[in-house]
Specification:
There is one protein chain. This protein is mainly α. It is built from eleven helices and four strands. α2 runs parallel beside α10, α4 crosses α8 and α5 packs across α7. The radius of gyration is 23 Å and the shape is globular. The two termini are 39 Å apart. The relative contact order is 0.17.
């Protein structure tokens, strides 16, 4: 495969200049993979832990890919992976955190007389009529069921229907749809109830919330991340960040730029490392991977803060 012009030289320079940050990233990745995930020390539902640990696999794959792309000065693609890592961490937080509150409101037709039974429902983090209180707390068991049900409903419905609209795929979609068991869908609907069944059947997310509102519901720090970092990364995902690929070295002419700057690499790798460390703390803090995990994560957090301090000088 062809390399971009100057890729090997630039990659070597950036890796040398950011050696401490690359060393930290590799140490965090290796140490986290070395921990034993077969023993849990916290009292947590099996379904919640198992789903979160599947997302942990996803997070590990994403983080390793970020490190590898940054090693070859590809911070642009790394930032897209970091955005996905953020949504993965949100999913882990949704499944594991003790206090996640979401309001479910009935949606009535405008001008409906009192006593009209609702036909629709909506998930919200705020409501004119309600403040989020402990009665809006979703148990871990319910959240695990919502997450699993969402995956099943999406495959059974929207995704299969969309496949059938692709030229030549109609019969394949029909065969796929026949493979779904209505009894499984009925069981999910029973577990999550009428309100959440409506929400998940009519919304693309497992929480019924936008990414921004889900971030706010889980933790204010996630909302700050969304507002400061996630939104800017979205330009790359949606193909509108074309200016990132322009270079004007002499100030008079423009040319395409295929390699990222040292600062761009630092930003992507730094963001991914902080986010993966947050992910690891959520998993360990709620599942409990033992005292060795306490020691490892404490040491790595101190190292992370030390690198942050040296970068700020």
């Amino acid at each position: 495969m062809h390399r971009f012009a100057g890729e090997e030289e630039r990659s070597a320079q950036v890796q040398e200049s950011l050696a401490d940050l690359f060393s930290l990233a590799e140490s965090l990745y290796n140490a986290w993979l070395d921990l034993d995930r077969n023993r849990w020390f916290e009292n947590i539902p099996n379904e919640s832990a198992n789903l979160a640990l599947l997302l942990d696999v996803q997070a590990c794959r994403l983080y390793r890919s970020v490190i590898e792309t940054c090693q070859r000065c590809e911070a642009y693609c790394a930032s897209i992976l970091v955005r996905t890592l953020f949504e993965t961490t949100l999913g882990v937080g949704f499944l594991l955190k003790k206090d996640v509150r979401i309001i479910v409101d009935p949606v009535l037709p405008k001008g409906a007389p009192p006593g009209t039974p609702p036909a629709k429902y909506a998930a919200k983090i705020s409501s004119k009529a309600k403040n989020r209180t402990r009665k809006h707390l979703l148990s871990r068991e319910l959240r695990a069921n919502l997450y699993a049900a969402h995956g099943y409903f999406a495959l059974e419905g929207r995704e299969t229907d969309s496949l059938g609209k692709f030229p030549g795929s109609y019969h394949a979609a029909r065969r796929l749809k026949k493979g779904f068991d209505p009894a499984i869908a009925a069981e999910y609907e029973k577990e999550i109830g009428i309100e959440w069944t409506y929400i998940l059947r009519h919304d693309t997310g497992y929480s019924g919330l936008s990414v921004k509102d889900l971030a706010r519901a889980i933790d204010k720090s996630f909302l700050r991340w969304y507002e400061a970092i996630y939104s800017s990364q979205s330009r790359a995902v949606h193909g509108t960040d074309f200016l990132r690929h322009l270079d004007s070295r002499d100030g008079t002419s423009l040319e395409g730029r295929a390699l990222s700057s040292e600062n761009e690499v630092r930003q992507s790798l730094w963001a991914a490392t902080g986010l993966f460390l947050t992910h690891a703390h959520i998993v360990h803090g709620n599942i409990g991977l033992g005292t060795s995990a306490d020691t490892v994560l404490h040491h790595l957090k101190e190292k992370f803060m030390g690198v942050a301090g040296s970068d700020a000088k």
